[in-house]
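[Meeting: bench + compute handoff]

Bench side (C.D.) handed over the final construct sequence. Compute side (W.E.) agreed to return the predicted structure before the next meeting so the bench team could plan truncations. Sequence as handed over:
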Amino acid sequence: MDLNLENLEVTHNEKENRFEAWIDGQLAKLDYTMDGSTIIMTHVGVHPDHRGRGVAGKVTQAALEYAKEKSLRVIPMCPYVGAYVRRNPQYMGLTKPHKEE
């Protein structure tokens, strides 16, 4: 199957604490927990049939954009998320502790 990332819809499933995309009935997801104004990104999972095709990056980008929109601090517990942030420095500021007002 040709996978068109531009048309891949990533949704925020707040009930399950994850960002998710469904491809051919298979779930790609980024799990997180919240701690006040901090989002702790704990795991990115993509079905083996869809790995290496940019799906994890698309789901991670959606989660980081959400964090940016909501002014959340990001703790990338998942090694993939940490590597993604290092490759995309526009998100580095999200991982810094917020200054006390």
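W.E. noted at the follow-up: The chain has one domain: 5-89. C.D. will use this when planning the next construct.
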